[in-house]
Amino acid sequence: xxxxxxxxxxxxxxxxxxxxxxxxxxxxxxxxxxxxxxxxxxxxxxxxxxxxxxxxxxxxxxxxxxxxxxxxxxxxxxxxxxxxxxxxxxxxxxxxxxxxxxxxxxxxxxxxxxxxxxxxxxxxxxxxxxxxxxxxxxxxxxxxxxxxxxxxxxxxxxxxxxxxxxxxxxxxxxxxxxxxxxxxxxxxxxxxxxxxxxxxxxxxxxxxxxxxxxxxxxxxxxxxxxxxxxxxxxxxxxxxxxxxxxxxxxxxxxxxxxxxxxxxxxxxxxxxxxxxxxxxxxxxxxxxxxxxxxxxxxxxxxxxxxxxxxxxxxxxxxxxxxxxxxxxxxxxxxxxxxxx
Length: 340
Fold this sequence. Notes:
InterPro entries: Glyco_trans_2-like, Glycosyltransferase_2, Nucleotide-diphossugar_trans
Family: Belongs to the glycosyltransferase 2 family.
CATH superfamily of the largest domain: Spore Coat Polysaccharide Biosynthesis Protein SpsA, Chain A
GO molecular function: glycosyltransferase activity
Strand order of the largest sheet: 8-6-7-5-2-3-4-9
Shape: elongated
Main location: membrane
CATH topology of the largest domain: Spore Coat Polysaccharide Biosynthesis Protein SpsA, Chain A
CATH architecture of the largest domain: Alpha-Beta Complex
Structural class: alpha/beta
Strand content: 15-25%
Order of helices and strands: EEHEHEHEHEHEHHEHHHEE
Distance between the termini: 35 Å
Number of helices: 10
GO cellular component, one term: plasma membrane
């Protein structure tokens, strides 16, 4: 299917959404004045991740008198990172900001991000949460544990307390588009690219409306995706578990031989039962970890898209050029520097 590609804008704001009907009016009321005051041409790419409520219709209602609002709808729910990928790949700005819809990350910070990027000549500006007092104690502690673990995996370049609120230059976007990763975790992937970066600190607010889209189940899934995508540590752990169980069994064998020579009676069924259970458990854990990595390799080799775009309101606009590249992604040719 053909898509219409207009000229590049100065700024794109990509907002993944899933069942966000309640928060959209407040989001538009705060975001639009901020962007209008920048004095640059911009677009807002609202990516609907297969919502089951009226998210899309509410977006269309606001888009009637806000021509910069662009609605991108995925055919099914594909996950937050996949929706973010869809928006980043189709954004047409020289600078691209990713922002959650819940208003916990203040849109007013975008102006400071753009200023820092231009004045400091950096390609990435991270929004760093200086205050998380509005989060629950459990959320703060789990977030602290997540960033501690990820810094050990990725290295010291990972900014602490930086989520998906960031500004990227067109150079970074073009690199991200060329990467083969099917399920990227951008809070780890972007720092690993090594582009010059800066930070802008802000106070994290409470969710403006609606329900959180990151319950415990999704936080655990994010932690696993982050670990499996960026480290072979689980496989090394499996190796150490295998070696430890082997040494334990070797010690039990030596103990049994000594006991037999000394004439000491060993309760056979209990020790054998425990040893078999221990070895079986270690083997299953190792097989499970190996299977996770093999499954990721299989999914990558298949090269199936992580998301399917069902609708893009940009397709309805008259433009200068049409492309049909399968993914229907704007093609700007060689990377265009956002600096200057």
